[in-house]
């Protein structure tokens, strides 16, 4: 796959993301598409936890197809799973119908294997290696931790984990990203793009020392935001001056597709 194909594809996915209903920003959509198009299909499967109206599902499916893959697994009960996801509670729409229409209208029914259930239920029978794990489900602390812990055993060396809303006001995503990824020696490069936290899993025995200083620096900045979610503060308090001052200190700009792809592929297992 040539670089121009990636650039053109990301532009297409950015434009598509603006036409689809959902909670991803353009920069987040580009990163998600980049990750799905970068990871070699031989490494394992792509799993999405939290599909909502099908926006991220569509971006993943089209990007996997570009990479030569034929399957994206997605799981979501398509009900109000948690009070940390107010959009699902307030939409008043029939989410299963909305999701299926999105998948159908974008011509990806043959690529998406959808499981309308909670991720914990899918985890009971899941037995496939993973090359990309997209976590955007229950945003409670237990929910986010369970989503990571249930599927982390299936991550392959070189695989990538991407988690949504690590810079929003829910406790689960930010704590999961900090505790399970930034503070884990099994993860190499990590970063934040928009409100997506991403990291490359290299394995428990990998030498990840070169990435430790950047991970610790990022952890120190992000950990100061945890108090605004973990202590149960209301939205007014979470929108306080302190939060507004601390959040911009976390680097979360768009990634350079060429540099990101080169870094990730350099850590893939050698055949």
Write the layout of secondary structure elements.
Elements: H1 3-19, H2 26-38, E1 45-49, H3 55-66, E2 72-75, H4 86-90, H5 95-105, E3 112-115, H6 119-123, E4 130-135, H7 141-151, E5 155-163, H8 171-182, E6 187-193, E7 196-201, H9 212-223, H10 227-230, H11 235-238, H12 241-246, H13 257-266
Parallel strand pairs: 1-2, 1-4, 2-3, 4-5
Antiparallel strand pairs: 5-7, 6-7
Helix pairs in contact: 1-2, 1-3, 2-3, 2-13, 7-8, 8-9
Query: What portion of residues belong to β-strands?
Result: 15-25%
Number of strands: 7
Mean pLDDT: 91
Parts with pLDDT < 50 across at least 5 consecutive residues? none
Helical stretch tally: 13
The figure for the number of domains is 1
Order of SSEs: HHEHEHHEHEHEHEEHHHHH
Name of the level-1 CATH class:
Alpha Beta
Please outline the major beta sheet.
Answer: 7 strands, mixed
> What is the terminal-to-terminal distance?
18 Å
Over the alpha carbons, how many angstroms does the gyration radius reach?
17 Å
Tell me the structural class: alpha/beta
Shape: globular
Task: Return the CATH topology.
Answer: Rossmann fold
């Amino acid at each position: 796959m040539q670089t121009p194909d990636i650039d053109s594809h990301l532009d297409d996915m950015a434009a598509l993301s603006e036409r689809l209903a959902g909670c991803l920003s353009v920069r987040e959509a580009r990163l998600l598409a980049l990750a799905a198009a970068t990871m070699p299909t031989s490494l394992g499967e792509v799993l999405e936890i939290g599909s909502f109206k099908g926006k991220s599902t569509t971006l993943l499916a089209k990007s996997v197809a570009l990479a030569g893959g034929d399957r994206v697994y997605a799981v979501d009960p398509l009900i109000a799973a948690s009070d940390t996801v107010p959009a699902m509670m307030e939409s008043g729409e029939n989410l299963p119908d909305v999701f299926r229409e999105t998948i159908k209208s974008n011509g990806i029914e043959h690529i998406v294997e959808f499981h309308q259930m909670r991720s914990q239920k899918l985890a009971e029978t899941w037995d496939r290696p993973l090359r990309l794990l997209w976590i955007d489900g229950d945003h409670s602390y237990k929910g986010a931790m369970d989503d990571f812990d249930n599927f982390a055993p299936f991550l392959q060396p070189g695989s990538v984990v991407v988690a949504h809303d690590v810079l929003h006001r829910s406790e689960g995503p930010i704590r999961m990203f900090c505790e399970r990824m930034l503070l884990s020696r099994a993860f190499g490069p990590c970063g934040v793009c928009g409100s997506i936290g991403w990291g490359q899993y290299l394995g428990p025995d990998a030498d990840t020392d070169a990435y430790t200083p950047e991970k610790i620096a990022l952890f120190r900045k992000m950990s100061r935001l945890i108090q605004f979610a973990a202590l149960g503060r209301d939205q007014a308090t979470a929108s306080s001056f302190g939060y507004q001052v601390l959040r911009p200190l976390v680097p979360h700009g768009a990634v350079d597709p060429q540099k990101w792809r080169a870094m990730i592929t350099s850590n893939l297992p050698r055949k």
